[in-house]
Amino acid sequence: MLFDLLVTGGTVVTADATFAADIGVRDGKIAALLPPSTDSNVQSAPTLDASGCYVLPGAVDGHVHLQMPTGVGYTADDWATGTRAAALGGTTCIIDFVETEPGERLTDALTKRLDEARAAVIDFGLHMTIQPDEHPIAGIPRRVSARRLAEMGEVYQAGCASFKLYMAYPGFQLSDGDLFRALRTVAELNGIACIHAENGDVIEALREAVVDRPERAIHHARTRPPANEHEAVTRALLCAELAGARVMIFHVGCEAAARVIADAKLRGNDRVFGETCPHYLTLTEDTLARDDGRLWVCAPPLRPQADQDAMWRLLASRALDVVGTDHCPFTRAQKDAGKPDFRRAPGGIPGIETRLGLLHEFGVRRGRLTLNDWVRVCCTRPAELYGLAGKGRIAVGYDADLVVFDPALPKTLTADALNSAIDWSAYEGLTCAGWVRDVIARGDLIVRDQGWIGRPGRGQFVRRAFPGNTHAADPTTRFR
Ligand SMILES: [Zn+2]
Q1: Which residues contact 286 (CB under 8 A, 6 or more apart)?
Q2: Alpha carbons 393 and 59: distance in angstroms, whole number
Q3: Could you tell me which of 23, 92, 226, 451 has the fewest CB atoms within 10 Å of its CB?
Q4: CATH of the domain at 405
Q5: Which residue, among 464, 454, 349, 359, has the nearest Cα to 56 in the 3D structure?
Q6: Cα-Cα-Cα-Cα dihedral of 468, 473, 475, 478, to 10°?
Q7: pLDDT < 50 positions in the chain
Q8: Where are the beta strands (DSSP E) in 134-258?
Q9: For residues 158 and 146, what is the distance between their CA atoms, to the nearest angstrom?
Q10: What pLDDT does 467 receive?
């Protein structure tokens, strides 16, 4: 038998082309792309009939938060429920995060996180979060220690080639100096920094200024205005350019911030990238004005319609590069912490399962993205930009991560119909015209007719690195 599995009759969609082909899978890899209606020789292989469907590379979600400790307990999905929901939505590889306890070494935190992640049913990578780690001295804010910067090299060697840097949130927020020092280390390692770009100091001041009706979640958007995001992205890119670092600005939701990224690209900076999320493409700040608006509290906040429209244009024009979900699920009970005061609501919107379907519905079907754009932003570019070798493409030698997407398989999004461990959906009642039917991950058929049939714990940690240190920091940023 030539192949372990043959996917027949589908329309293959890649980031650059759409064509009819059968796909032969052997030993977990894509072994051949064949003209449709193959000869009897290969028909002896087990087949999966994809007639009438698109066949895409398995989608890659570079931004999820499973089993993350927060002030209201862990995020609601653990590695088992979260990765299963991802797979049912066509995602075959995710990247989550490692956070550290005070005083904990990065390598120890990584070991602990890898142990938790053993329940993963799809492949995964990990971004290493760099937090201020020095012991606080009275009146002097915590800093990132020199030891911590040195440890970044150790975790890079262990396969964490990307580093999360926060410009907001007490406990996570880096000073400009530390942001720059961390970015310089990222440049030396030839890694990539993923930046949460909001001006944390200004946000804290604006939040303190809310004295009236703190139960209104719309205050959340008012206290994190677009100018705040715009300023932080500008500052982040200034530091990154000075350090020579490659950067991904995470969860861009407003036009002003996205324009800063677009301008940097136009100036010729080819180390700057932007991510937006399905919620910025499909929802607006109007949801925050609802009585249960706290459910949609996330940061940066949802924006007005004009910003949503701009996100689609900037995604299609490649000013923004990828769509990640920032999946950060909380139950209604957890979100209710924000009932008396929006400032206590845990921030995050679920989306690990709905990204491909929503982008097809609101992007492809509404004419805002081509089929190839859809694959580019959900599958191929995330794999390339985060250093996931062997993922994100339908080509011989790549991992056999494949999605059979049926454009005529309607799906109504409700908490019951989705597989995240939460009791609400951010898109309750919305119907998408097409959905994911089958999923193959490293050659295993793990989703069949929208049902999970894979083995528990089959996911593997993907060690990431970027070939060749061609983007080393400009030596002039060192003074000797
Ligand atoms: Zn996030």
Answers
A1: none
A2: 9
A3: 451
A4: 2.30.40.10
A5: 359
A6: -140
A7: 470-478
A8: 162-166, 192-196, 247-249
A9: 19
A10: 79
Cα radius of gyration (the chain): 22
pTM for this structure? 0.96
Q: Give the distance (Å) from ligand 1 centre to CA of residue 177.
A: 22
Residues 34 and 138 reside in one and the same domain:
no
Cα(324) to centroid(ligand 1), Å? 9
Taking the centre of ligand 1 as the mean of its atom positions, its distance from the CA of residue 367, in whole angstroms, is 28
Q: Give distance in angstroms: CA of 64 to centre of ligand 1.
A: 6
Phi, psi of 363 (to 5 degrees): -100, -65
Tell whether 62 and 38 lie within a shared domain. no
Strands 91-98 and 59-61 come out as parallel
462 Cα: distance to centroid of ligand 1 (angstroms): 20
pLDDT digits (tens, 9 = 90+) for 61-81: 999 999 999 999 999 999 999
452-455 LR contacts (CB < 8 Å, sep 24+):
452/84, 452/87, 452/88, 452/419, 454/84, 454/87, 454/121, 455/121
In a domain, 476, yes or no: no
Write the DSSP string, 425-467.
Answer: -TTTTEEES-EEEEEEETTEEEEETTEE-PPTT---B-----S
Please report the sign of the dihedral spanned by the C-alpha atoms of residue 237, residue 243, residue 244, residue 247. negative
Q: 63 and 51, same structural domain?
A: no
Tell me how far the alpha carbon of residue 51 lies from the centroid of ligand 1, in angstroms. Answer: 37
CA of 298 to the centre of ligand 1 (A): 9
Residues 272 and 138 in one domain: yes
The domain in which residue 253 lies consists of 58-385
Before 300, cis peptide (omega within 30)? Answer: yes
pLDDT on residue 449? 98
Q: How many domains is the chain partitioned into structurally?
A: 2
Q: Which two tokens stand for residue 457?
A: 């714990």
Q: How many CA atoms lie within 13 A of 421 on its CB side?
A: 14
- What spacing in Å lies between the alpha carbon of 271 and ligand 1's midpoint? 21
Kindly state whether residue 272 falls inside one of the protein's structural domains.
yes
CA 352 – ligand 1 centroid, Å: 12
Q: Is 372 helix (H, G, I), strand (E, B) or coil?
A: helix
Q: How far is the CA of 185 from the centre of ligand 1 (A)?
A: 22
Residue 297 alpha carbon to ligand 1 centre in Å? 13
Reported as a single tens digit per residue, the pLDDT across 122-147 is 999 999 999 998 876 766 667 899 99
184 occurs within a structural domain: yes
Supply the DSSP symbol for 83.
Answer: H
**383 token code pair:** 């794999």
CA 336 from chain center: how many Å? 25
Same domain for 242 and 299:
yes
Q: How far is the CA of 347 from the centre of ligand 1 (A)?
A: 9
pLDDT at 473: 43
